[in-house]
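Give me the fold.
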Amino acid sequence: MKRKHFFYILLISLLFVSCGTERKLARKFVSQSNDIAVLVVVPEFIFKFNERSDKNTDDLKNLEQYQKDSILVAQTLVLKDVDEAVFLSVLENACVETMKEFNVQAFTLNQLVDFEQNSASKTWMMNISQLEMQEFNSEEWIAQYIFGIRYDAMVDKSGINVASWFEMIPSKIYDHNMAQRLYSEQEIIEEIEGDFRYDEQSNEIYYSYNTDSLSVEKIYNFAAYLGHLYGGYAYDYIMNDYVKKQLPDGKTQTRFFRYNPYTKQLFATESDRFIFLEEK
């Protein structure tokens, strides 16, 4: 029993030592962030899809897939009016802006010459190789008990899903073999606010609600949010790549860290990060 107890204490002690080493390495990386340069590359276009349940697919059978997609996107409520160039520009600018908040030298493809000539000792390419946007709708059931009786109502909400594929490359030159492939997916959905009410004339209970509807402006604001998110995720990826490579031989990384440049805090995460599609 004592041996078992000793083993647990030893195991916990080793974990604390390992985590402490990783945290120190992450802190060292943060202190050297101004010696890192990142080129942010966004795609030339966005793949758009209509995933609404109320889409009309009549008379599309004999068309090519790209023709079907174009016709279906034209049926969407908001996605059809989103300007791809504006969306990508907003996302790109927000991503670069965020990286600079981490004290990183960040560049866009329009600044390629400056990126190639910079003197940072560590250079990376963050290539958003593909970006997809889907407009969808979903049903939400609302339930409430009134005087012991359950009342239900169904509301239909629209949303936009954005899925992005990334390549993180530790080089000034694109090299397919060096790329770590990553993924991230987020969505924005309409918000519903309402309550059940009594109609005296019909003597019935009904659900009255207002919808904070999606708009093109909200989608562009969402692009800015994604740019900030991707910028932070990219920094965290580079930081953890440094930690993994600086650990002593035989040691493996036990935690993935995120860094908050505003509070100067490091914290571990399991899901708030890029998804690894493969391990390099």
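The chain has one domain: 2-276.
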